[in-house]
Write a structure and sequence with these properties.
With 429 residues, the chain is an alpha/beta fold. It has 3 domains: 122 residues, no CATH class; 61 residues, no CATH class; 187 residues, Rossmann fold. It is 39% helix and 16% strand. It contains 13 helices and 13 strands. A 6-stranded mixed sheet has the order 8-7-6-9-12-13, with helices on both faces. It has a 3-stranded antiparallel sheet with strand order 3-5-4. Strand 6, helix 9 and strand 7 form a beta-alpha-beta unit. Helix 3 crosses helix 5 and helix 9 packs parallel to helix 13. It is flat, with a radius of gyration of 29 Å.
Length: 429
Amino acid sequence: MRYKYTRFTGEDLEGIDLEELLSKLSDLLLSSGFDNPYWSEFGDEADHTLQSLHDAILDALLNGGLLSDEALERLMGDPADADQDDARSQLEQLVQQIIERLMQEGYVTAQPDLEGEREQRERAAGQGQGPDSSVRFEITDKGLDFLGYRALHDLLGTVGKSSFGRHDTRDLATGIESSGAAKPYEFGDTLNIDPSGTILNAVRRAGLESGARGPDEPAIDVQYEDLMVAQGEYQSSCATVLMLDCSHSMILYGEDRFTPAKRVALALANLIRTEYPGDALQVVLFHDSAEEIPLSQLARVRVGPYYTNTREGLRLARRLLERQRKDMRQIVMITDGKPSALTQPDGHIYRNAFGLDPFIVAETFTEVNKCRKAGILINTFMLARDHDLVSFVRRVSEICRGKAYFTTPYTLGQYVLMDYMTRKTRTVH
C-alpha cells in the first residue's frame, strides 16, 4: 500500500506543515540511544513517552521555523502582558491538538485506553502541564513509510537525481527496451523482432536468389535465417540484505552513527518498493550475535553494550540470500568497528575488543569466502578510518570482488543509494 501525504490545514493548526513537523521529529522517532549511551534493557521507555513527544513538538514549534513570527506572537502573547498563563495554556492546547492529529492520521499510536488518556491530557493542558510521562507511544508503519519517503527524497535531492533507473548489467538480452545492435534470432530468444533488419536480410537474400524465384512467389519472402531481434540492456532483479552494526561503538565518541543507518534502511526500502518492485530487501542486525528484523521494528531498535560479530552477521545474511531466486544477490554492510566477537561451535561467544584478533579475523574471512562462492557480493560502508580497519575492509572487498566505501554518517545515505542504483554487475543466466 502506498500513501499520499497531504498537508493538514485545520482551524487550530493553520500554517503548520504536518509532514515537515514529522521530519523534524525523526531523531526522536528513530532514537538509537545516543542521548543515553549508558545502555539499559529498558532504556527506550524514556524516549518514547507522550511527554517526550510533547517536548519535541514544542521545541519544533518554537525553534524549527514551523510557525510564522506573527503566529508565535499570537500564541506566546506580549511579554509585557502580566497574564502569561493564558498564552502557555493556548500553546499547550496546540501541542495536544498536534499529538491527536498525528494519531488520527495514523503516524503514531498510543497505548489502548485513548479516551482516558485524552481526558487526562485535557486536564493537564488546562493546568498548564504536559501529558502523563508514563504513557508511551509507538511510530506506526505509515509513519515509517513517510520517514523513508522523506529520507529518500532528501538524500537523492542533494545529488541532483530527478529520476531512477533499473539495475543495468553488462549483459544484453532480448525482450527489453532496445538500446543495442540487433542480432540474428537464435532459438530461445524472445521474439522482439527488429523489422528493418529482418526485411533487409530478406531483400538481400531475394536479390541473390532472384534468378531462381518464380513469377508467383512474393517479392519479399522472409525465412527463418532472415530474422533479427533487437537487444537491450538486461535489467535484473536483486536481493539485498542490509547488515547494520548495532554494537555500542555506533553511538560513542560524540557521534550518533546508528540513526543515519536507520534512515538509510528506510530510504532503501522506499526506493525498492517504488522503483524496483521485483527486488527484495531484508535487514540483519549484528552485535554479539545476529538476527533478522522486519522493517516495521526498525524504529524500535537501539544499540546496546555489544561487541561486533561480523562473521555471524555475514553467515545469517548468506543463508537468507541463498533462499532468494534472484539474478543479483548482495550484502550491504554498514559498520564502524572491527570484528571483535565470534560464535563458537558450542554456541558460546568469544570476545576480544583489543586490536584485530587473528582468530576472529581468519574466521570472518572464511565466511566472506563462502559468500563469494555463493555468488554474493559484499559492499562495505565503513564509518571509521583506522589503518587496521581500512586494511581489513579492503581485504573483504578483494575476496568477494565488492566495493569498500569510507564515509561519514552525513554522506552514508548518498553513497548507499547511488551505489544501489548505478551498480553494473555481470549476471549469471
